[in-house]
Design a protein that fits this description.
The protein is mostly helical. It has five helices and two strands. The protein is 60% helix and 3% strand. Strand 1 and strand 2 form a beta hairpin. 12% of the residues are buried.
């Protein structure tokens, strides 16, 4: 299948496919006599995996690690679990940080609910921040 056909089937762009190939995420395609890339049908499955990994928040480097393990003939499930554990902890930390930020911003907004400009000090830009 040509690069445009694969891009359409995989819901991506030819530019992305060339990038994946350059980064080692997608094996180099065979070339036709006229030099066009000719991908195996399995390439679409691999691209789907790449997209699922990205949707889970994995980096392309992490996805490449998983693919390298699989390409090496091993099962990457344990490695995937470990990556997802780290990702989940990172998400939980981000949520905690966001909750703290929300609480801080809410407190600032509450303090500024009834502004009193006449009480502002000239040395302060705004006392509510």
């Amino acid at each position: 299948m040509r690069i445009g056909e694969l891009a359409e089937a995989a819901g991506t762009t030819a530019k992305a496919l060339r990038f994946y190939e350059e980064q080692g995420l997608l094996p180099a395609a065979e070339r036709t006599a006229s030099g066009y890339r000719d991908y195996d049908p399995e390439a679409a499955t691999r691209i789907d995996f790449i997209h699922r990994g990205q949707a889970a928040g994995l980096t392309l480097a992490q996805i490449k690690q998983i693919l390298d393990i699989r390409d090496g003939g091993e099962i990457p499930c344990g490695h995937v679990r470990d990556l997802l554990d780290v990702r989940l902890k990172d998400i939980e930390r981000q949520i905690s940080d966001l909750v703290s930020l929300r609480d801080n911003v809410a407190a600032l907004r509450d303090a500024a609910a009834e502004p009193e400009p006449e009480t502002c000090n000239a040395d302060e830009v705004c006392r509510y921040l």
